[in-house]
Amino acid sequence: MKTFRFFSAFSLLSLFNLAFAQSVPGVTDTEVKIGVHLSLSGPASFVGQGAKVGIALAQAEINAKGGINGRKLVFNFVDDRGSPDGGVTAARKLVDEENTFVVLGSGTSSSTVPVLPYFERNGVPYYVSLASDPQVMGKFRRNVYSGATSTQIVWGTSMAKFVNDNFKPKRVAMMQCDQAHCISGVPLVKGMLQTGGAEVSVFTYNSGDTDFTGQVQQSSLLIRMLYLFMVLRLMVAGFCLKFDVQVSTLLLWEILH
Questions:
Q1: Could you tell me whether strands 171-176 and 227-229 are parallel, antiparallel, or unpaired per DSSP bridges?
Q2: Cα 85 from chain centroid (whole Å)
Q3: Rg of the chain over CA atoms, in angstroms?
Q4: Residue 185 CA to chain centroid, in angstroms?
Q5: CA 176 from chain center: how many Å?
Q6: Alpha-carbon distance 178 to 237, whole Å?
Q7: DSSP, res 82
Q8: Is the confidence at residue 6, as pLDDT, over 80?
């Protein structure tokens, strides 16, 4: 992972240096404008709210120390509502209307995957800090990069291995949400658990649900019942995004030096 990030950072730096030789949108002598699309409303709003706090912490620390070679970081947040159409609308606003230098994709997979073709066409640097759907990094795009998020192959393999090695279950029940990362991630983990000898049942629920009585009643796994909630590790979202911004800052310092 460290090697991958190093070469991604190197490629990003090369791309930005090439662009910086010309007139770069969103960069002045005093500031660097960075766009962020994230879920500030909707079922995944707790993701976006934590992300916004993490970014604000990093921004305050960086700007308090003089910014990037004298340029302050200015973040423009746009709510993508955690939905596909919201992601596309937010991305277009940040690029076409706000004229940002780079866009941070801090939304869920549901709002990130649909915007990939748009960024592939326009060439604006797009830094994905949260979405883990295989479609994000499955295809090489010279202007799309990934940060703190582990791919589904990494965390899915780790999750299944932990369960198989420590519980050695014969039967497993999984609860799958309706978000893109669940829809693509659950089959991956399910297959690995089955390879370990477990009989796997999958029960679905919708974002925003608070009552799971129906799913529990459907399950007949009364002995050693194990629920794997396929949700993002969101309690650390703020920390992860703060880490992402700090890593990006090192790149920007080199670009603008």
A1: parallel
A2: 17
A3: 20
A4: 14
A5: 18
A6: 20
A7: T
A8: no
With cut-offs at 50, 70 and 90, classify the pLDDT of residue 228.
very low
Statement: 2-150+235-256 belongs to CATH 3.40.50.11060: no
- The Cβ of residue 205 has, within 10 Å, a number of other Cβ atoms equal to 18
Instruction: Centre a 10 Å sphere on the Cβ of residue 186 and count the other Cβ atoms it contains.
Output: 21
- DSSP secondary structure string, 96-153? IIS--SEEEE-S-HHHHGGGHHHHHHH---EEESS---HHHHSS--TTEEE-SPPPHH
Longest dimension (CA), the chain: 65
Count the Cβ atoms, other than its own, within 10 Å of residue 235. Answer: 9
Two domains, one topology: 2-150+235-256 and 152-231: yes
Residue partners of 72: CB distance under 8 A and separation at least 6? 30, 31, 32, 63
> Which CATH number is correct for 152-231, 3.30.70.100, 3.40.50.2300, 3.40.50.10960, 1.10.10.60?
3.40.50.2300
pTM (2 d.p.): 0.69
b/e per residue 122-160 (b: at least 16 CB within 10 A): eebbbbbbbbbbbebbeeeeebbbbbbbebbeebbeebb
What average pLDDT score do residues 236-245 get?
41
Q: For the chain, first and last CA: distance in Å?
A: 27
